[in-house]
Amino acid sequence: MSKDKLPGKKKKSRPSMIFYSIVALLVFFMVGYVIKAQLDHPGRSALAGMWQKAINSSISISLEDNEGNDDQEQAGVEDNERDNGNNNNDDNDDNDVGEDEDNSGDSAAAEKKGDAPEPGAGMEQDKQVSGGNFPNEKHGWGLKRNDEHQQPEMPSWLNSMLERHDSYWVGSPEDKVIYLTFDEGYENGYTPSILDSLKANDVKAAFFVTGHYLDSQPDLVRRMVDEGHIVGNHSDTHPSFPEVSDSEIKKELQVVEEKYKNITGQTGMKYLRPPRGEFSERTLAVTRGMGYYNIFWSMAAVDWVPMKGGAQEAYEAVINNTHNGAILLMHAVSKDNAEAMDRILKEIKNQGYTFATLDDLKR
Questions:
Q1: In 3D, which of 115, 180, 167, 164 has the Cα closest to residue 144?
Q2: Domain positions in the chain
């Protein structure tokens, strides 16, 4: 009997041997891979590591605000995170920090002397105005007063930015004209007296109102309109516009427009005072696209709190700083302003000035 025909022993087929060899090799490589994965990623299974690698390499994550994607792409800036804590009281208290900056510190003074750098200086090219996209660098309005009854100085880059978007802070230096404006965040009981003085002196003004003011003082708003004053938009909840998205800015203004229409039956609000006096070129462009002229100021005082000198200080703060083409910002929450208003209006006229409205404002 030959050796390959031994009884009780069955010879394995060649295909079976190949199959088991392949299985053994696969097991060997799998064990090796698992050991390597454990060494490379302690505490993580090999499959978890493979899955994570696949996710990282194949999925791109968008961080854009879906609600404002179209607006943000048009403006070319990212949606800024809104700090609700900073705005909680703004609809009830129009303490416009930055809206009296003629008494501000060195930073504002440097800008008005022309020493401040142009926005975007030293930044990457893609941060500049390019292809219809505007930067969102935040600026706070500030002025350096003089005692010569001359218009404050303004750096050329800022003048150019404002001109590009039809924004105003002063009228013609050749015209002995004053443009009187008031900001109305809430009512402190003095607006009726101010309106009485304006009527007695035949002076028209502009009142920039918030959503809260429209909600709480519809009768006063109707009186403003009936007596020929301009009612401007000061936003619904008074946020810093550079800190919110394009869509939020539009909503802020549209809410005020709707409330104003419901109260007065009128449409077509076209003058805007940026909340807190804060703006960027993006916000100027967005609001101009809605049909608004941003109105800043060339005269102001810290008048939303009681003045140490009372009505006399309010009077002197205005009369000592009059100049041609002045856009005068006052707050109607001031008792001192209300008590001094008749004297202020009469003395401005005595100095040879006339009052005009924002509709008369020309560059």
A1: 115
A2: 93-116+147-360
In degrees, rounded to 5, the angle at the alpha carbon of residue 277 between the alpha carbons of residues 353 and 195 is 45
Coil, helix or strand for 270? coil
| Run of H or E residues at 6 | none
So which residues are the catalytic ones?
183, 331
Task: Report yes or no: 211 and 233 within 8 Å, Cβ to Cβ.
Answer: no
| One-letter amino acid of 242 | P
End-to-end, the C-alpha distance of the chain in Å comes to 121
* CATH level 2 (architecture), domain 93-116+147-360: Alpha-Beta Barrel (3.20)
Please tell me whether residue 162 adopts helix, strand or coil conformation.
helix
What's the CA gap between 222 and 245, in Å, rounded?
31
pLDDT, tens digit, 9 for 90 and up, residues 262-304: 999 999 999 999 999 999 999 999 999 999 999 999 999 889 8
**Are 334 and 314 contacting, i.e. CB atoms less than 8 angstroms apart?**
yes
Burial readout 308-321 (b: 16 or more C-beta within 10 A, e: otherwise): eeebebbbebbbeb
**Rounded to an integer, what is the distance from CA 323 to the centroid of its chain?**
29
Distance of CA 284 to the CA centre of its chain: 9
Give the integer Cα–Cα distance in Å for 175 and 159: 19
Report pLDDT digits (tens) over 129-164. 323 589 999 999 988 888 899 999 999 999 999 999
The one-letter code for the residue type at 310 is G
Let me know how long the chain is.
Answer: 363
77 three-class SS: coil
At residue 39, what is the residue type? L
Residue position matching structure tokens 């194949």:
58
DSSP letter for 117, please.
P
**Percent of the chain's residues with pLDDT above 90:** 59
- pTM, two decimals, is 0.67
User: Which tokens sit at 247?
Assistant: 């869509």
213 close to 221: Cβ distance less than 8 angstroms:
yes
Q: Residues 243, 263: contact at Cβ < 8 Å?
A: no
Helix (H/G/I), strand (E/B), else coil: 243 = helix
d(CA 103, CA 143): 7
Cβ atoms of 210 and 248 within 8 Å: the answer is: no
- Strand pairing report for 139-140 and 278-279: antiparallel
DSSP-derived secondary structure letter, 93: -
